[in-house]
Amino acid sequence: MELKNWLNTIFLYLSYSPILFSKLNIFLNLNFFLIDINKSFISKCRFWLDIMPSNVTPEYLKAEDAYKLAKSPKEKLAALELMLSTIPKHKGTEKMQLQIKRNLSKLKKEVEKEKELKKGGTGGSGATFFVRKEGAAQVALVGLPNSGKSTLLNKLTGKDVEIGNYAFTTVKPIPAMLPYKGIQIQLVDMPGLIEGVSLGKGMGGPLISAIRAVDAILILIDLSVDPVKDLEIILSELEAKGLRINKKVPNIDIEKIPTGGIEIIGENFLVDCTPQDVRKILMEERVHNAIITIKENVTLTDIFEVLDSSLEYKKAIIVGTKGDLPGSREGLEKIQNHVKNFKIIPVSAINNVNIDILPSEIFSILGIIRVYTRSPGGKIDNEAMPMKIDSTALDAAKKVHKTLYKNFKFARVWGDSAKFEGQRVGPEHVLRDGDIIEIHV
Ligand SMILES: Nc1nc2c(ncn2[C@@H]2O[C@H](COP(=O)(O)OP(=O)(O)OP(=O)(O)O)[C@@H](O)[C@H]2O)c(=O)[nH]1
Ligand SMILES: [Mg+2]
Fold first, then answer.
1. Which of 141, 163, 354 to mutate to test the pocket of ligand 1 (most atoms within 8 A of CB)?
2. What percentage of residues in the chain have a pLDDT greater than 90?
3. 3-state secondary structure of 258
4. Which has the higher per-residue pLDDT, 399 or 119?
C-alpha cells in the first residue's frame, strides 16, 4: 500500500512537471515502468488529473480503460457507448458527456465512410435514391412504413403511386409535382423509415442521403397508433445522421484569419463553458487563428455544432395522418403536448380533411417568394419565379437574364413591397411574395 502511494506521488509529480519530466530520463523510464506495472491505476490518475469530474463510477472507469486499450474502431465504438451509458448524468460531467458524444459521432462517421467505400459508395443496400431536383423546391414525405405517405402524395399531386396496408409498399423515392400559385413544388414519396435506419437498417444510407438532399420535410405520423413514439424514432434517427430538424443554426460567426490567434467577441454569452473551453475545442478542430463572434446565449453544444460542417438544418412540419380512425383525436393531443417547435396539421386523406391547406403550409416552410415578371408591354408571365426570401430587384434581374442584371437601371413593382402600384425602385429594393416586377435597362 505504501509503495503504491509513493508511486502515485511520483506519477502525479511527473504529470504536473512536463519540463522536468522531459529532462530527467531516469524519471521517464520510471514512468514507462509504472505504465507497465499498473495500466489501469495510471489511467485513473490521468483521468482525474485531466478532467476531474465528480462521482464517476467504477463501471465508467472500466469503460474508459477499455476505450484506451481498444484497437479496432468497432471496439472503440463499443467502449465509448459504454462510457456514455455509465457516466453519471449531472452538471459536473456535462462537458465530459459532450466530449464523449462528439468522439462517438466522429468515430461513427469514420466507420461509415469506410463501409461506404467498401460497398462502392451507396452506403447500404447498394441502391442509390438520388432524385433530380425539379421546380421551386424539393420536399420529402418522411414517415414510418404504412403511415400514409403514398396516399397523401396521390391526393396532393394526382399521381397513382401504389398503396398497401403493409410495410414497405414503396421501395424507392417517387417524385411528383405539386402546383402552387404559379410555381411547382416537387414532393418526394420516400420509402418507410424504421428504427435503426441510421445504423444501416431498412433502406439505410441511401434513404438518409435522399432526405439530406431535400429542401424541407413533411413528417407523416399516424395519429391513431403511438404518434409520440413514432415522432421520436424519426427525429432521433435523423439527428443521429446529422440532420437537425426545425432547429436554429447557432448564432456564432467563425471568421478564420491568417494569424493572430483566437479572439472571442461576446464571451458573456457563453452559458455553460468558459472562453478557455471554446479555445480548446477550436484547437482540437485545428482552428488556430479566428475571430469568434457570439451575439446571443450559446452552449458548448452550440459551439460543437457550428464547427461540424456535416450538419444539415431542415425545416419540417408534422402531418398527422389517419385523422378519421379511432384514437386519432387522443393521438393528436398527445403529440401537440409533446412538441412545441413544430406545426402539426391533422389530416384524413380518406375523408379529404385538411388536404387543401397543405400546399400553402408546405410553401410557408420553403423560405421562398414568388415573383412574376412583366414585360414593358404589360404582359405578365403566368409562371412565377421562385426566389429566396429577401431577394432584391437586382436579384430578380439576375435570375431572368444576365444582360438585364448587367444593364439594370431601375424596375417598376406592383404588389406587397410597393408603396403604390408600379412604383419605380432601385436595385436594392426588397421584393415580397406575389410581387410583379418590370425591369428596365
Ligand atoms: N383510415 C385511413 N387510412 C389511411 C389514410 N391514409 C392512408 N391510409 C391507409 O394506410 C395504409 C398505408 O398507406 P400508404 O399510403 O401505402 O402508406 P405508406 O406510408 O406509403 O407506406 P409504405 O410505402 O409502406 O412506407 C393503406 O391501407 C391506406 O389505405 C387515412 O387518411 N385514413
Ligand atoms: Mg408508400
1. 163
2. 61
3. coil
4. 399
